[in-house]
Design a protein that fits this description.
single chain; alpha+beta; Aminopeptidase; seven-stranded mixed β-sheet; two-stranded antiparallel ribbon; 30% helix; acyltransferase activity, transferring groups other than amino-acyl groups; Acyl_CoA_acyltransferase; acyltransferase; Bact_Acetyltransf; GNAT_dom
């Protein structure tokens, strides 16, 4: 990979088609957890940006969108406000190169700067690669609902530098298949 930039976006329109393509390509083998209809994916992306409150980040490689992460800061779980990562999507052409980890780092720094102490996500129970990826980043399984596992991570105990120094290689991981993508599956 060459030049990587991770930027927050507030307007979906200029990137909607690229992000829809990345989502569909990353989920090409998934018929359980992902939306397959392009129109539904576009509506889902609109829903994500509406609820992200500044937590929608796109990774650009040499100026081209290559992945994204979306956080909803105001999620409630059992009465507690805990931000949730709804999507972590990497274009299959860029998977296995650490881009997912860079996106996750950006999201965690964003949440720490906003004063949050914890973050959560949901992962498909059969997606061992994604669960392993998240566990390496310090997430722990805290709940189960149907085919989904809730994973949480405490933010106060770790800094960006500590996370960067952890295992640097990332494998292709997905909530759905080992060859598609990483996603919280919301």
């Amino acid at each position: 990979m060459n030049k990587i930039e991770i930027k927050p976006i507030k307007d979906l329109k200029p990137l909607a088609e690229d992000l829809k393509r990345i989502y569909l390509d990353a989920y090409q083998e998934d018929y359980i957890y992902a939306y397959r209809d392009p129109g539904r994916v576009k509506r889902y992306l609109k829903w994500l940006i509406k609820h992200a409150d500044g937590g929608f980040f796109v990774a650009f490689v040499d100026g081209k969108p290559a992945g994204f992460i979306v956080i909803q800061p105001d999620c409630r779980f059992h009465g507690e406000v805990v931000p949730e990562i709804h999507e972590l999507v990497v274009d299959p052409a860029y998977q296995g190169r650490g881009l997912g980890k860079l996106l996750m780092q950006k999201a965690l720094v964003f949440l720490k700067e906003k004063g949050f102490k914890k973050v959560a996500l949901w992962v498909g129970e059969k997606n061992e690669d994604a669960r392993c990826f998240y566990e390496k980043l310090g997430f722990k399984v805290t709940d189960r609902q149907g085919a989904w596992l809730r994973m949480e991570k405490e933010l106060e105990a770790e800094t960006y530098d500590q996370m960067s120094s952890k295992e640097s290689s990332t494998r292709k991981a997905s909530t759905t298949s080992t060859s598609s993508m990483i996603s919280s599956g919301v």
